[in-house]
Design a protein that fits this description.
Blueprint (H helix, E strand, L loop, with lengths): L1 E13 L6 E4 L2 H10 L2 E3 L2 E3 L3 E4 L10 E10 L12
Antiparallel strand pairs: 1-2, 1-6, 3-4, 5-6
Length: 85
């Protein structure tokens, strides 16, 4: 059986009166992504990530989170670990 492991890469907020999410991702996280999380498709590399709304804003008023989701084999008797920046 497999499940998904999430690597959180940043947070953001919705732009007032628009259907746009503005994200902040640190330079260090971007460098890690370019090194470890690119997906090869038809000879080109892509970054695939997801943006989800938070149940409630965090302490800084951020309303959305961004993460890379990777399919991994589920460990026996437990769940995969989630890594956060």
């Amino acid at each position: 059986m497999s499940q998904f492991e999430k690597t959180y890469i940043g947070k953001g907020t919705q732009v007032k009166d628009l259907n746009i999410i503005r994200l902040s991702i640190s330079k260090e996280t971007l460098e890690e992504i370019l090194k470890d999380h690119m997906v090869d498709y038809d000879g080109k590399e892509y970054l695939v990530f997801e943006v989800a709304s938070l149940k409630e804003p965090d302490q800084f008023g951020k309303t959305h989170t961004a993460y890379i989701s990777k399919k991994v084999a589920a460990p026996k008797g437990g769940k995969a670990r989630k890594s956060k920046p």
